[in-house]
Write a structure and sequence with these properties.
metal-binding; six-stranded mixed sheet; alpha/beta; single chain; Metallo-beta-lactamase, Chain A; RibonucZ/Hydroxyglut_hydro; 6 helices
Length: 241
Amino acid sequence: MRAMQVITIVSAVFGARCSVLVDDDGSCVVIDAGAGITDDVLAVVEERQLSPAAVLATHGHVDHTWDAGPLSHALDVPVVLHAADEYRLADPFGTLGLLGTSGRPAHDPSGPLAQAIAATGIDPSSYVAPRRVEPFGAVGDVRSADTVLELGALRVVARHAPGHTEGSTLYLVGPLAFTGDVLFAGSIGRTDLPGGDDATMQRTLREVVTTLPPETVVVPGHGPTSDIATELVHNPYLARL
């Protein structure tokens, strides 16, 4: 089995977790480029002389994609996410409903997420959408088939896992599952924002999450790592399925 390393950089906005997944040959991908992580990611790439292949997004919420555009440009790699969430990249606050701007201008600091971004010293009006986007999957599918992404030496299985958003995706690499806001240690992502759906999330948990091998390491979009065996016993949202 190839040796892989996960380097974690935590954004100051909502504690969103950015992961740099590094293969033993120096290939790497960046998963969930939250606000303010670009300089730290570029420092890791330069220090370790890595060869980036893509910026992946587990879903299109802006706390996971704020730096996707600048980082994609700096690394000269595409932003990759499910097609059903691609529309969010063009309207990062407006697609979040009450958590975003609720119809106000995108730079309006009265929106909760805009306030959280402004509190870190980042101007909420400075958002730059990615110029290179390579979506996979199809819009409108309740659940798409797996998509295999060959990224440098890394083979990443993108498994559609809607419910938190329409395009939420698990990225599976060897024993690792990057779950974004679908599954956390002891909890799951909310379903009350635009594009979320509780019934769809329950299907995802039942048919996608619980069928992963128990030894699978869960690397969520917020909070500590876990594993499927632990979550099946201690996560109340899985234990009741």
